Amino acid sequence: MTTPNDLPPAIDQRLTELEIKASYADDLLDVLNMQVARQQEQIGLLLREVGRLGRQGDADAGVQAPLSARDELPPHH
After folding, report:
1. Is 51 within a domain?
2. pTM above threshold 0.90
3. How far is 23 from 36, CA to CA, in rounded Å?
4. In the structure, how many helices (H) and strands (E) does the chain have?
């Protein structure tokens, strides 16, 4: 069986570089996972807010505003 000390220097160097890259990739994956989780929370909050605004708009639709300034003029006799 080969131990790390028995590896040729070029292979040992490449293995070390790959281990470093794998470590950076793991760290990046953790950061990206946290970012996705935060964004998912923000999306949930925004969806609830849009739903609330939609319900508020539906409730306000019962009191309908005039469509134009002409609609506000009293009829002429």
Report:
1. yes
2. no
3. 20
4. 2, 0
